Amino acid sequence: MSILTNRPDLEAAVAQVAEVAGYLWQKGWAERNGGNITVNVTDCVDDDLRNLHALTGPLPIGTVLPDIAGCYFYCKGTGKRMRDLARRPMENGSIIRILPDGASYVIVGDRPVQPTSELPSHLMIHNYLIHSGSRYKACLHTHPVEMVAMSHNRQMLEKDVMGRLLWSMIPETLAFAPLGLGIVPYRLPGSVKLAEATLELIRDYDVVLWEKHGTFAVGTDIMDAFDQVDVFNKAATIYLRAKSMGFEPEGMTDEAMEEVQHVFRLPKRRPV
Ligand code: 13P
Ligand code: ZN
User: Is the shortest distance between the CB of 36 and ligand 1 below 6 Å?
Assistant: First the structure.
């Protein structure tokens, strides 16, 4: 029997992860095992699940995160493919319980699938989100082609240069991602250094771009996190299509951008 059986909220959260995993594959952002997803599902957990025997002994997180002690997360499995997860989320990911020390976790179901190698980034950010009383529960790392291509240009890596350029490509980017795009200089995938640099920037930006690697986004749920990356990558695609037609795109004027900011007046998506 699956851990999802008779737990409709948990089942719905995992089904949404599977839906987004399918989109990541269809978009060409998820070659092989590329990308990872974690969702804080603690709100969907009942006493039976809390008392359920773990499938593994304690495994180290690699850092101490007191605010996630006792929490539960759905995590994509390391080395697992998004296209497989889309059809079989509980064979290509698992639910973990963080132990009271905040430094280790156990896998509770359905199978002992080892969580993603980017667990340090994901859990450090969940720890920050919980600590700050945020509504955000989902983290997404993916490899959107156009944004990664642009991150190979040093000029684009200067503070707020790429974010401003993308805002000016299509009004919705500014309307839906008014905090812009943070840039994390290249760090080894899966490293605590990458996690720390991500945490530093995700407080201030809608999406963070890992130089020559991918993006990291947070959201109220995984669909929300996906939308944020999709909005930016649409703008990046427009920019690159214009360049491939042989011209530098003009971009919206400052006045047009101010008007969008003024008229839309969307609540800032700051994670706290
Ligand atoms: P995992 O298969 O460990 O999730 O790694 C994929 C990835 O994109 C690493 O940055
Ligand atoms: Zn990656």
Answer: yes
